Amino acid sequence: MADEASEQRQFIVQSMRKFALQTQTVEFYINNEITHIMSNLEQFSGHLMKIANVFDIATINGIRARIMTGYRFVSNDKILNLLKNLSKISGSPSEFKCNGFTFPLVAKWRPNLTGHNRMVEAISELHAEVAGILNLHMKTRCTGSPVILWMPILTINVELMTKDSSTFHMPQAQATVPFSDIFVGAIETINGTMEWILLFLARHQLMQKRLHAEIIEVIGNSPPSLSDRSRLPYTESVQHEVIQLSFRSWSLLIGGD
């Protein structure tokens, strides 16, 4: 079991690192999603809006979908709805505690009452959908063909799935689990951070103006780039402050110190 976890974890880290090094490709995907989300936010100009899950599609498409599958998700996509369901189940502090994260015995004794069974069912459905994507890539991938720059990481290690000795071999191990982890892993963290940034700036108008002034001065009307980070010290500081606040608040919600 330890060897399986080690191989799968190593694959995930290496694959994401390889793709992250392709800065221009990542920036293209993220900037594309920024355009979409700005169009959606503009329709709420001057009106009240619900912040929760507003960044779901953009996060999944910019950070996960393009990297993993090579295509964009739409609002009625089944995987997107499954991820929203998982977020809803785990997003409640009371259910988070009772689902086994804080009080595992409660989930064992009362799986229906605590929502544990709903969580297991939702995860199983997500695994089934990811398995379908894997099977599609297995059928369309040409063994031995070179991995090109924009190729989703699902196909990078596809040859391993045909080796009996590999933990990614379908009959031997749950190859869908590590790929599902990639889907879910950072989505909640990124969504939470984005939502906190939006709320934080809405409550601090002077900070919002200073942030906007720095971005206009450094970037102007050009698309943002990772190379701009060193020239945006105030923006970077605000980002780190919001991350700390979001983690601290979530810790308090679930009963942490």
From TrEMBL:
Q: What is this protein called?
A: Cytochrome P450
Keywords from the named record: Iron, Metal-binding
Q: Does the UniProt entry include the keyword 4Fe-4S?
A: no
Originating organism: Allacma fusca
Q: Which family does it belong to?
A: Belongs to the cytochrome P450 family.
GO CC terms: cytoplasm
- InterPro entries on file: Cyt_P450 (IPR001128), Cytochrome_P450_fam2 (IPR050182)
Pfam families attached to this UniProt entry = p450
Provide the GO MF annotations for this entry: heme binding; iron ion binding; oxidoreductase activity, acting on paired donors, with incorporation or reduction of molecular oxygen, reduced flavin or flavoprotein as one donor, and incorporation of one atom of oxygen; steroid hydroxylase activity
Q: Which is a GO BP term held by this UniProt record?
A: organic acid metabolic process
